[in-house]
Amino acid sequence: MTEGLDSERMACWRAYIEASQRFFTRLEDDLRAESELSLADYHVLVLLSEAPGQRLRMGELAERLVFSPSRLTYQISAMQKRGLVAKESCPQDRRGSEAVLTAAGLLALREAAPHHLASARQHLMDDLDDAEVACLTRVFERLGRRLRAGRDVASTPSD
Amino acid sequence: MTEGLDSERMACWRAYIEASQRFFTRLEDDLRAESELSLADYHVLVLLSEAPGQRLRMGELAERLVFSPSRLTYQISAMQKRGLVAKESCPQDRRGSEAVLTAAGLLALREAAPHHLASARQHLMDDLDDAEVACLTRVFERLGRRLRAGRDVASTPSD
User: Fold this and answer.
1) Domains of chain B
2) Is B154 close to A122, i.e. CB distance below 8 A?
3) Which tens digits make up the pLDDT trace of A2-51?
4) What is the number of other CB atoms lying within 10 angstroms of the CB of residue A16?
5) Which end of chain B is less packed: N or C, by CB atoms within 10 Å?
6) Antiparallel, parallel or unpaired: β B55-57 and A97-101
């Protein structure tokens, strides 16, 4: 294992991680200013709205959100109290449970989405030219696939 | 304000935000597996190690980390208990206070850094070609500058 990144790659890494962390904080602030939702609430609503029957097993939802089971339980309970989701036992597996999007959840998502996407455009997307869009899509689709597969094929130099 | 992103830009946005959130969770897991530090601890240590005299005013540190004052107070108190930082009143302004890197903090950072950078390489950086490095640097340096300036010049279409 070696620490070294050449100076171009180190500058790239710092720019990516610092700007992205700042950006996610800003997206959260923008979303909370325009809706009752946190970014985590928003992502839960998006995933449920896109799932067949607008419902997902808790384990699947935890995997998609990269949440621990206890964090997801807390997140879904909080959303359940606000009427945004319901929780039901799985038809196929009585021990398992599913989160189900409610009508109120769908309406909250539909109301928040334009504001959230306007933030995404304002801070980042409208600033990109077509070549940059293609580059970012390529890089982050590869990263997402690799992380989902859970097996990072590293080209670690032998030292 | 309009919701629309064309399909290429929507795919780009989803790839970026989903992969980055998954990636930050993985970086945090990797760091905790190899050290006693969270990502927030690590970033505090990096910022202090790079500051003149290895010390920063609390307000400056909050701004750099994009933390609220109360979140930063909590963060620094927790690090102080573990001996990683000290807190002193500012020489120039007795009401203000500064976080100061301790020797133990510097050693913890030096021990964690190779592992953290190895994660960065393994999951992302070693997979990028030179053109992708140049593109990401350009895009995220622009994003960082815009967010720091706090004045996003949006090219919002008039609709």
Assistant:
1) 7-127 (1.10.10.10)
2) yes
3) 457 899 999 999 999 999 999 999 999 999 999 999 999 999 999 999 99
4) 24
5) C
6) unpaired
